């Protein structure tokens, strides 16, 4: 290449504006010349300089490589901490509604709850026992609008929008942007009346994935007639879904479609975070 631009100057190099390099080449040459003429490089002219331009560029290159290797980890850790902070805030807000509702309506076993898992049942329950104790930004009068039915993925990557409880839920937004879905009258092994609460800590913003920004709570209303120990212990409480398994390693496994595993739906992921003391540990499927 024709390059009259390259000329040794004591401690470094000098680049002139050679047209064969184009605009960006000339701009780079100017920047390098300006850098060499700064006080940092001028010090020691006539004697040995502290650093040559080549040494500085090599150092910057090493810094760039290290940054490229560590930046993903730094970003991931920040995202985890931000998720935990939001989770704890939303969990506290929703959990506080239970004590206030019980104070007003007494024993949850006597609360009104319809016989169908549908939008109307969820709406009636949410409007009476949950929403009066929260700051609501807006409600979804139907589930067909974009902001009330945006695409969500299960932890395994499959669509979550056809998930039974989500599809039949009543939905609204809190003032902080949290998206809340209430699916009433869902039965479990230990409960005759159970309300599923699904929430997205940042609404429509990505990643919109169960276990990352979408999580499950279970509102235990009435224990099953068998009155199991687990059912009685959880009555009147709003707790992370799958917490009744009481074994984090089991919840992280593949034994149930609800479990917090990348091959499963991810419903139990909040239970794992909760059991780990509000931490996202290395074996969590982040």
Describe the structure.
With 286 residues, the chain is an alpha+beta fold. It has eight helices and eight strands. It has a six-stranded antiparallel β-sheet. A two-stranded antiparallel sheet has the order 1-2. Strand 1 (7-9) and strand 2 form a beta hairpin.
Q: Rg to the nearest angstrom?
A: 29 Å
Largest sheet properties: 6 strands, antiparallel
How many structural units, i.e. domains? 2
In spatial order, strands of the major sheet run: 3-4-5-6-7-8
Q: Percent of residues in helical segments?
A: 25-40%
- Strand tally is 8
Gross morphology: elongated
Helix run count:
8
Residue share in β-strands:
15-25%
Helix and strand content put the structural class at: alpha+beta
- State mean pLDDT (0 to 100 scale): 85
What string gives the helices and strands in order?
A: EEHHHHEHEEEEHEHH
Distance separating the two termini: 50 Å
Instruction: Indicate the low-confidence ranges by residue numbers.
Output: 1-21
